[in-house]
Amino acid sequence: MTTPKPDQEEAQAAATEHTGHDEHAAGCACPRTADLDGNGIAASSRRRFLRGAGVLGAGAAAAGLLGATPAYASGSRSGADRDPYGQTAMTPAPRGKWRPDPESTRFTLVVMPDTQYMFDQDRIHPVPMEASFRYVLDPKGRAGGGDENIVFLAHLGDVTQNGLTEEYAAATKVFDMLDRARASYSVLAGNHDVHGDDQRGATPYLDTFSSARARKTPSYHSSSPDGYNTCHIFRAGGRSWMLLALDWRMSQKGFAWANAVIAANPTLPVIVTTHEIVGSYDDGTAGLSDYGQQMWDDLIKNNDQIFLTLNGHYWPPGSTVMKNSHGNDVHLHITNYQDRYYGGAGMIRSYRFDLDRGRIDVATFSPWIRELAARQEANSLAAEEMELTSPVDYFSMAIDFDERFAGFAPVPPRKARPARQMLVRGTLAYWRFDNGGAVGGDVAANTVVKDQAGNGNDLVLRSVPGTPAHALTWTDDHHPDQPGHAGLVFAGQGNPVSGAYLQTVDRAPINQETFAKGYTFEVFFKVPADWDGGRNGWSSMLSRAGSAGQAGKNGPSATADEPVLTLSLSSSIELQWNAYPLNQNGATTAWSHLLQKEQWWHVAVTNDGRIIKLYVNGCEEGRNPTSEAIGLTTLKMPFLLGGYQWAGAVNQVFHGTIGDVRITDRALSPREFMNA
């Protein structure tokens, strides 16, 4: 079967306009009358058609796979009301509770497209849909499946085949599962549910999915006056999102309502769901249908808040990306599986948002077939449909959410915090650079960077002989979560060594500190694009003067000429904490993963009196020692900011920018870090 191209749509629609339905050849099951399916085949022969298309096996058809007596006709629970796999048509409520985490940066939107073949006159079989709803509602049942935090379910229309009251009598009982759990979900009308546009008046669809019913969902915001269009606002990832569930054919009144509800919520990202916008091409790309073009022109194009649209109706699936009038991407997806085994087998698509990674990962699968497989009851055709992994069904979208939403919901820059606010209990030294010289200007030779903790651990300038001008300059560049909005740009290097750095004054109390009860060292930093591992590798952001040999350290991991403490960057831009504890003859180290250039980082190294942990951007790294490490060795010599000594002499100076630096005499928790 092939999908009709969008330019075929209007000619086909004109040929069937008298029915109130659109006819799309094999790409969409749209009957001319209640007696024909979407391929112009009599409904009574659909099973012959499906068998011929390889969708049903002869044994399944003989068992009445899509032709069981409606389980809701008499309310009986007899054997005749059981589906061919032995499952009763209505299942018990899920075991778990639907309680998504609204603050987690990872959450899932579940999409269910055309389910019409499950609700088709006397061919009613709701079990696949029930399994999908059970998956959405039961966190225990989906544990480890990638969808641990489902926040919303969106049905894309064509709930039923013929829009008949008896079909909705069956469908409504399945949706009752969502209502009982107080789940956030939306439903919209497809062309099999209704005729005409959203001014059509009363229908069995609207009797079933009324505004009054929608109002009971936690996410409900509003409905258009006709009741066929609804707006939902749900919370996920620590922010609010809008989802519009729009009718198969909106009138101008409908478009006016949708535009108004977006305008009334000008900072919310918007997902548009409707039955038809795009259809797919053979290569998996998609294009606007004629009605989709109207949707684009009258709603999507000029509303920058709309970043994603989802529709069913056509098959096979596909997607495209279009630029709106603001020059930003809009992702348009068509997803529909009614042409596949068992009328789609209750297939759902998971849109797994990961705000930290800036991605939406998409997966397509049938919870019902998963259940059959778990009971070893899935036949060979079902097994092929359990997970769909083609490029149009299983893929990942990169979206920089902050950048994409900046035009209507910019993330306000974090304001500078006063130094006194950062003086947590146990602060020994706190250095920041927002009271220095002019941006871009050199740090003068007589500069003293005061210890904001007031403990006298001030910093003074030192330079390697022969260092050229502009080796250390002031900047207002800073990490977005840095308390002080300034830093120092170090232009140091090794091989040969040159540059300027800072060090604590000779009488600074911190020079003698052994940190026997614990510590936390924190530094904000960034390395530039011209960082070179051979020239700049193994330079230190923070170190302590004096060598291991001078301190009498001679253990197997001791290197006599290296400093007794250094927080350095390797030639591959890995963080390395290398220090000599009081209770060890050798060094103890902790490493980070490889870091990127031109990106601000926050590093924290903590010790609770025995165990060292290294954190990057508040996240604990995995390669930290578990051997007991008590305190830090000192020769009562200065700390160096940006300088690194070998055999007692500076042989490397940092190349990059350093922001706020804080040292405490206890292990802080991540919520106490400066970037928290």
Secondary-structure map with pairings?
Layout: H1 9-15, H2 46-52, H3 58-62, E1 106-112, E2 119-120, E3 123-124, H4 127-137, E4 150-155, H5 165-180, E5 185-186, H6 204-208, H7 211-214, E6 220-223, E7 230-236, E8 239-245, H8 252-263, E9 270-274, E10 278-280, E11 286-288, H9 290-300, E12 306-311, E13 318-323, E14 329-334, E15 348-354, E16 359-365, H10 367-374, H11 380-385, E17 387-388, E18 395-398, H12 401-404, E19 427-431, E20 448-449, E21 459-463, E22 472-475, E23 487-491, E24 500-504, E25 519-526, H13 533-536, E26 539-547, E27 563-569, E28 574-579, E29 588-594, E30 601-607, E31 612-616, E32 619-620, E33 639-641, E34 643-646, E35 649-653, E36 655-664
Parallel strand pairs: 1-4, 4-5, 8-9, 9-12, 12-14
Antiparallel strand pairs: 1-15, 2-3, 6-7, 7-8, 10-11, 13-14, 15-16, 16-17, 16-18, 19-36, 20-21, 21-24, 22-23, 23-36, 24-33, 25-30, 25-36, 26-27, 26-33, 27-28, 28-29, 30-31, 31-32, 34-35
Annotation, overall tally of beta strands: 36
Return the structural class: alpha+beta
The percentage of residues in β strands lies in 25-35%
Distance between the termini: 55 Å
Number of helices: 13
| Backbone shape | elongated
Q: What radius of gyration results from the CA coordinates?
A: 32 Å
Multimeric status of the protein: single chain
Roughly how much helix do the residues carry, as a percent range?
10-25%
Number of domains: 2
Q: What CATH architecture of the largest domain do you see?
A: 4-Layer Sandwich
- Report the average pLDDT across residues: 87
CATH class of the largest domain: Alpha Beta
Most strands sheet: 8 strands, antiparallel
- CATH topology grouping of the largest domain: Purple Acid Phosphatase, chain A, domain 2
Unreliable segments (pLDDT under 50, ≥5 consecutive)? 1-88
CATH H-level name of the largest domain... which superfamily? Metallo-dependent phosphatases
